């Protein structure tokens, strides 16, 4: 129950200001003391930050951190800080320790599990009640699952939250901003973890099966931008697909049934929601082709019909409906040619 839009076309390490520029450090030193963590660059050891183990307070390095009077009880090399997360009594500092990488357009993109350094005051856990201890154990187990979860990518060489089309339009003034300000916040997977390091605000996010539709600003749930890059003889070409939940106001409450019922929310703001959604896409990507892949029967059929009706009021956006479940059931993916025939002319116009 998602719609696709097509158009032609953060890292977790410490950034250090040097004059009016910001530098990304890919190799850091983690010093662990009884009362705090200290993270600093090998190249610029006077740059970095400390995190209190008592209350999670984060501060820039001072003289005592650069040349501490007490030796740390553990020193290790890390490759980036994904952020911090607070539990009941424990604050966890996420740090990348193993790097697995593959090549993408001459830039290394890394997929790494995380090792967690746990921080809490010695008496904090002792003061927890039985229910709090149970919650703490549950949250810690979830964090250990995250430690072993692949598929979270970052890069030292390029901002993979920005597509090629957008990177080509960046001005020198934009590039002078801190790296976290340059990134597209929609695709910074660890943005919530960075809230203690930077002030942040997220959009209509949530687990795929728990969040559906759009919010009043037109931001859709489950939004994913996929970029296909082609490079030959120094020339780069980019083709973008943006997938997201159908941009109407609707919900689907998860229960034990195989296919939970969905409900379209009757709201006078719906036309404005759809308009805002596609205005944002057009401003970001240029010409947009909206491909509706929903089932045309049952609840999804009602949703698809409502979507098609709203798209009639947006003549500037090309709307194409394709019942993927009907045409491509039983792995009949050769039927995708039907969809391609409908949008091939648009693809040619987009280059």
Automatic annotation (TrEMBL):
Database matches in InterPro entries: SAC_dom
Xref: Pfam families: Syja_N (PF02383)
GO molecular function: phosphatidylinositol-4-phosphate phosphatase activity
Domain SAC: residue ranges: 143-351
Gene Ontology CC, one term: endoplasmic reticulum
Protein's UniProt name: SAC domain-containing protein
Signal peptide: none
One annotated GO biological process: phosphatidylinositol dephosphorylation
Domain of life of the native organism: Eukaryota
Coiled coil regions, renumbered to chain: none
